[in-house]
């Protein structure tokens, strides 16, 4: 069974991302073609990158890095839920990504972004970062606008159009995760 981690990429108090991630998990959990699990960065309090060796060596010294490595290494693909802060993804998500290398390789990922323009710029930055880590970004991006997909900028009210986009994105993540399995096995 393909395993997909839904990474909640915000730790900010009062974060909109928590309800977005639970919305993704609620819809994903209805599927039978993969197992989905929420990965909340609040549960993995990683300090600013503090490993002495680059992650490409995989020689982790800190227990928090080893725990993060084991968690990310257990998945075949990901959905990254990201806010847009200052035209990019959150610092906490970027830091968590930067901790590892091989654990990300040859896996697919989709993006659910949110912000004033749907988090589009954060999603594009994640695509660039993913490419360097041998992550395959799927085409479909769920972009939730604070103006049209939230009530009072704080309560998620995604419509059927967004549910359809989410379904397509999940289809792509599962298919690509399955297709990339031979590369993961060879590595």
Question: What topology does this entry show?
Answer:
Layout: E1 2-8, H1 17-28, E2 34-40, H2 63-73, E3 77-83, H3 91-98, E4 107-115, H4 120-132, E5 135-145, E6 150-151, E7 155-156, H5 160-179, H6 181-186
Parallel strand pairs: 1-2, 1-3, 3-4, 4-5
Antiparallel strand pairs: 6-7
Describe the structure concisely.
Helices cover 37% and strands 24% of the residues.
Structure description:
The chain has one domain: Rossmann fold (3-Layer(aba) Sandwich). It is 37% helix and 24% strand. It has 6 helices and 7 strands, in the order E-H-E-H-E-H-E-H-E-E-E-H-H. A 5-stranded parallel β-sheet has the order 2-1-3-4-5, with helices on both faces. The protein has a two-stranded antiparallel sheet with strand order 6-7. The mean pLDDT is 97. Pfam families: FMN_red. InterPro entries: Flavoprotein-like_sf (IPR029039), FMN_Rdtase-like_dom (IPR005025), NAD(P)H-dep_reductase (IPR050712).
Helices and strands, in order, run as: EHEHEHEHEEEHH
Taking Cα atoms only, what radius of gyration do you get, to the nearest Å?
Answer: 16 Å
CATH level 3 topology: Rossmann fold
Please give the number of β-strands.
7
Domain NADPH-dependent FMN reductase-like: 3-146
InterPro entries: Flavoprotein-like_sf, FMN_Rdtase-like_dom, NAD(P)H-dep_reductase
GO molecular function: FMN binding; oxidoreductase activity
Protein name: NADPH-dependent oxidoreductase
Label this structure with key terms:
alpha/beta; five-stranded parallel β-sheet; two-stranded antiparallel ribbon; NAD(P)H-dep_reductase; 7 strands; NADPH-dependent oxidoreductase; 187 residues; oxidoreductase activity; Rossmann fold; 6 helices
């Amino acid at each position: 069974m393909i395993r997909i981690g839904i990474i909640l990429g915000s730790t900010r108090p009062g974060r909109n991302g928590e309800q977005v991630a639970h919305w993704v998990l609620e819809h994903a959990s209805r599927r039978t073609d993969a197992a989905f699990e929420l990965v909340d960065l609040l549960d993995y309090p990683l300090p600013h990158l503090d490993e002495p060796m680059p992650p490409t060596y995989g020689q982790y010294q800190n227990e928090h890095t080893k725990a993060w490595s084991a968690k990310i290494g257990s998945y075949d693909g990901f959905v990254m839920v990201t806010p847009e802060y200052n035209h990019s993804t959150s610092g906490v998500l970027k830091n968590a990504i930067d901790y590892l290398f091989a654990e990300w390789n040859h896996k697919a990922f989709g993006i659910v972004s949110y912000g004033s323009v749907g988090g589009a710029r954060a999603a594009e930055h994640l695509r660039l970062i993913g490419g360097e880590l041998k992550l395959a970004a799927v085409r479909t991006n769920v972009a939730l606008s604070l103006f049209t997909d939230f009530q009072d900028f704080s309560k998620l009210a995604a419509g059927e159009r967004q549910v359809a986009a989410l379904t397509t994105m999940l289809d792509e993540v599962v298919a690509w995760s399955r297709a990339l399995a031979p590369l993961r096995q060879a590595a």
